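TA notes, week 10

Several of you asked for a full example with nothing omitted. So below is the full record: structure tokens for the whole chain, then the designed sequence directly under it. When grading your own attempts, check the secondary structure regions first.
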């Protein structure tokens, strides 16, 4: 998967690349998200029957062919003319859940029409509380299979790389929630009025929808426990791709304590630094049900559109299957902490 980034560098404008690649501050967390996986060693087991490998998981009652989810990434038309539509198409070909967010540059209807796999919606909380409820209801009616809420961004982080590169959103790009442009467009920038939800807002949102509710951006076991108690159906352990505050822990380092506290009550998705099949294996061994990838598939999108996205996911899945076989695990259910050295 690492080959996609240098390929994307050849086609992306410099400022757009810096927007995608950059982390907060001195990017200590950005580097550590990947480096932390490298510090974890695997235990090999041999002479086990791994002739038939099964990577399938069940999430929210739905069987998925593998545990790889495409994270919500903003403004994908910056990377490819079709943006999220091409990403959704590629996700569907590869059997991956695709998450389209409030900052998407394509209507969710188009993403749903193009994907053969479930599509989830990520909500960036807006200052008009009722608008959030209406947005979630409309997304549910259109066919979104789950609602995720970003909970870790009370203010943008110190993203100095994109600032130094002179990154500026083109005036032509907007975030059309729906194809009906009169009821679902936020112009990027001044028209957005983001706010930060509280636990009370999450409880209110929980009361409005029967869709699975996922809180994205949990790093503390106390917050994980409160999420479960507030009605969340899953959490995403994430430092927002290292884009918020520098020197946060790597996502994989935060996972074990959270998994211990949650104790299997709700699924945990690991987001941050996943680049190899062994990373997927390690995340599941330490308590995750699934993993998200972000930057790699956007580089693949920039390189080859929907075909690139599908190839990116398939590469990771194949690498994961190889890691399972070489550590003696034929099924997801056989992956536990005993695979860690």
């Amino acid at each position: 998967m690492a080959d996609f980034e240098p390929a994307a560098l050849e086609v992306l404008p410099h400022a757009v690349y810096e927007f995608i690649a950059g982390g907060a501050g001195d990017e200590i967390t950005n580097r550590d998200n990947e480096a932390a996986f490298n510090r974890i060693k695997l235990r090999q087991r041999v002479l086990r029957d791994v002739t038939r490998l099964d990577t399938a998981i069940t999430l929210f009652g739905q069987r998925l062919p593998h545990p790889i989810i495409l994270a919500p990434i903003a403004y994908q038309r910056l990377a490819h003319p079709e943006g999220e539509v091409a990403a959704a198409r590629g996700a569907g070909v590869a059997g991956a859940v695709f998450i389209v967010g409030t900052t998407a540059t394509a209507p969710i209807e188009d993403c749903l029409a193009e994907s053969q796999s479930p599509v989830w919606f990520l909500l960036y909380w807006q200052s008009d509380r009722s608008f959030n409820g209406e947005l979630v209801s409309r997304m549910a009616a259109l066919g979104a299979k789950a609602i995720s809420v970003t909970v870790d961004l009370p203010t943008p982080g110190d993203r100095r790389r994109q600032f130094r590169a002179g990154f500026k959103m083109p005036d032509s790009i907007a975030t059309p929630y729906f194809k009906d442009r009169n009821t679902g467009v936020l112009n990027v920038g001044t028209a957005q009025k983001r706010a930060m939800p509280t636990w009370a807002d999450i409880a209110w949102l929980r009361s409005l929808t029967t869709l699975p509710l996922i809180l994205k951006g949990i790093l503390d076991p106390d917050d994980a426990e409160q999420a479960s108690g507030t009605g969340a159906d899953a959490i995403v352990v994430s430092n927002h791709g290292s884009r918020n505050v520098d020197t946060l822990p790597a996502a994989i380092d935060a996972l074990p304590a959270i998994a211990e506290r949650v104790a299997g009550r709700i699924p945990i998705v690991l987001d941050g630094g996943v680049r190899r099949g062994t990373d997927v294996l390690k995340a599941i061994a330490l308590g995750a049900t699934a993993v998200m990838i972000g930057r790699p598939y956007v580089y693949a999108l920039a390189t080859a559109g929907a075909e690139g996205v599908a190839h990116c996911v398939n590469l990771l899945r194949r690498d994961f299957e190889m890691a399972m076989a070489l550590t003696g695990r034929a099924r997801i259910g056989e992956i536990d902490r005993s695979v860690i050295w």
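The two ends are 25 Å apart (CA to CA). Use that as a sanity check on your answer.
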